[in-house]
Design a protein that fits this description.
The structure is a single chain. It is built from 11 helices and 10 strands. The protein is α/β, with parallel strands linked by helices. The chain folds into 2 domains: 239 residues, P-loop containing nucleotide triphosphate hydrolases (Rossmann fold, 3-Layer(aba) Sandwich); 48 residues, no CATH class. The strands form 2 sheets. The protein has a 6-stranded mixed sheet, sandwiched between helices. Helix 6 links the parallel strand 7 and strand 8. It is globular and about 70 Å long.
Length: 291
């Protein structure tokens, strides 16, 4: 079985062949398998969003290749299948809602796929239930909160039955409550088998993924499980990226002489690690060894 998504030496140049050419993605090779939860992080201009748009053929390579479930994104006949397999949710939920009633908005995608009406109704109900928005099915989208709108946008993608959900900075414009709602939703979806690719600058959100890919200048700088990537604090700092809050706190405590184990990512892990220390091990020690 081929990877769900594979890029081979992918390169993307905006305004190619002109004096204003910009290399946004520069030789990226990676594979993403069915069921993964991948966070892609990087500073502004690192190539995150450009890379994401190659995953469902919104952009085509100016060099290299991209395959989705074995289909070459450059093959025009494959684009329809590719976009059914990989759905995208963007930063501004207001730009993704097209109808005046929530359930009509969610039905829009399946209708365009030619799904029979009875099947559309079943898909709409299932998708709204999945994102905990079924009770709002007859509401006007413009009256919803930002997080609720984004969950409706996700439901619209789910109603098309994709294998993969790509979120391109989908929590950036939301308040903390809206961010939590969306993150909880995508974690549930991933647990149910949907592949999730979360493009984000929020490192605390990235820590929740199974795999973190850090980009710099259009190239992969780091790629691995969150515990491994966040153990490379100096490398992240050189890339202009900060550690998530809990790994940063654990690092500071280690620097203060508290012998915490590596790989701490969550509050629960930190509490467990501190609780496991022997009496006296939590005492702060200065460079001269004086308590």
């Amino acid at each position: 079985m081929p990877p769900l998504i594979e890029t081979r030496n992918l390169r993307h140049v905006y305004n190619a062949g002109t004096t204003s050419a910009v290399v946004a993605v520069d030789g990226i090779s990676l594979t993403i398998n069915q069921g993964e939860f991948v966070a892609i992080v990087g500073g502004n201009g690192s190539g995150k969003s450009t890379l994401a748009k190659h995953f469902n053929a919104l952009l085509l390579p100016t060099g290299g290749e991209v395959y989705v479930d074995g289909r070459d994104t450059r093959t025009r006949a494959s684009v329809w299948d590719i976009r059914q397999r990989v759905g995208m949710v963007f930063q501004n939920p207001d730009n993704q809602l097209v109808a005046t009633v929530v359930e009509e908005d969610v039905a829009f995608g399946p209708e365009n796929l030619g799904v029979p009406p009875a099947e559309i109704a079943a898909r709409v109900e299932e998708a709204l239930r999945t994102v905990n928005m079924l009770e709002y099915r007859r509401h006007a989208p413009h009256l919803l909160s930002g997080g609720q709108k984004q969950r409706v946008a996700i439901a619209g993608i789910l109603a098309m039955r994709p294998q993969c959900l790509v979120l391109d900075e989908a929590t950036t414009m939301l308040d903390p409550q809206g961010q939590r709602e969306v993150i909880e939703t995508i974690r549930r979806l991933n647990a149910s088998g949907v592949t999730v690719i979360h493009i984000t600058h929020a490192m605390d959100e990235a820590a929740l993924a199974h795999r973190v890919i850090a980009l710099q200048d259009g190239r992969i700088g780091l790629d691995g499980p969150p515990a491994d990537v966040f153990a490379r604090a100096e490398d992240l700092e050189r890339m202009g990226l900060a550690l998530p809050l809990i790994p940063a706190l654990a690092r500071r405590l280690r620097e203060d002489g508290i012998p915490l184990p590596p790989g701490i990512l969550s509050v629960d892990q930190l509490v467990d690690a501190v609780s496991a220390l022997r009496p006296g091990q939590t005492a702060r020690t200065n460079p001269n060894g004086v308590h």
